[in-house]
Amino acid sequence: MLAQEEPADDTTTPQHEDITPTTEPEPVDDADDISVTPPQLSISERIILAQQAYQEFRFQEIVDLLENDLLDPSLFKNPAQLTEARALTGSALFHLAQSSRQPAEKQTLLSKSESHLLNLLRKEPDYNLDPYLFSRSATEHLEAIRNKHIEELNAIRAEQSTTPNDSGNPVIYIERATRKQKRILNFAPFALGQFQNNQEVKGTILAMGQSIGLAVNITGYIRNQLVVSSLPGGRFPRQDDNNPGPEISTAQTFRIIQYAGLAMFALFYSYSVVDGLYYYQPEQLLEIKTLDGPPPELQPQSQLPPLNTQIQWTLAF
């Protein structure tokens, strides 16, 4: 009987008392915590990455970094970050639309781009893209949106001028004087395109080069004609003529000078056209000055109602 009871005791004695379950889950939980929590970039870090991506023409990456955040503007603690994110996303969508070959997709991307940039202008109607970061085509796209919604933006400017500043800081009004540039002037001779682009030194050099080339061309032509007119018959002698005389070599020399001057003029002119088109900007900034108060066009009381003019013709006999 005792021999049978001992095995019974052996089967009941090995009790694990939950020793292994309590020790094994702890390292497993730690491993799970390490693998499930990857590092997450802040909004400022994503904006920096988006700026680098824009310089490297990786526009889809900009949209992936910032577009979801723009669905909830409250995520941006700094208004400047929200403005920069809208500018980057709107410009990136514009470039993606330019490279798209599907009309439907292109129109969708342009609509999204306009939406982001218009939201930017509704907060800052006079905002301008940084020319050192954004392309010229993106700047022209923003200006097109500004002109398209000019009435709405003027109303926002007027409202902002009459609304007190929430931060308590004084409002500063800045007036920009600009000049519209003309692309056709880049094709004019004597470096008019360079002078339009405010490149006076380069324009002076190119204008002098063209003037010297033209002067040499005209001088060579006149001297050549004078020598030829002094020859018998007023023409170059033929090869079968005997004793053509030294005048023929002189005339040939002036003809070479004539064509050399023409080539010089053409060289300087071609460089002037290419350089002028490369540095051409549709609008040139002339002056920036600070105003003591809001300009008249931003004051609602100064805006006159539309004038209904009626013209009556009276025939008198």
Please provide a written account of the structure:
The chain is mostly helical and 317 residues long. It folds into 2 domains: 43-180, no CATH class; 186-280. It is 58% helix and 5% strand. It contains 12 helices and 2 strands, in the order H-H-H-H-H-H-H-H-H-E-H-H-H-E. The protein has helices at residues 2-12, 19-23, 25-36, 43-55, 59-66, 79-99, 103-123, 136-148, 150-162, 192-196, 200-230, 247-278, and strands at 173-180, 283-291. The chain has a two-stranded antiparallel sheet with strand order 1-2. Helix 4 runs parallel beside helix 6 (79-99). It is elongated. 17% of the residues are buried.
Give descriptors for this structure.
disordered C terminus, mainly alpha, 58% helix, two-stranded antiparallel sheet, 317 residues
How is the secondary structure organized here?
Elements: H1 2-12, H2 19-23, H3 25-36, H4 43-55, H5 59-66, H6 79-99, H7 103-123, H8 136-148, H9 150-162, E1 173-180, H10 192-196, H11 200-230, H12 247-278, E2 283-291
Antiparallel strand pairs: 1-2
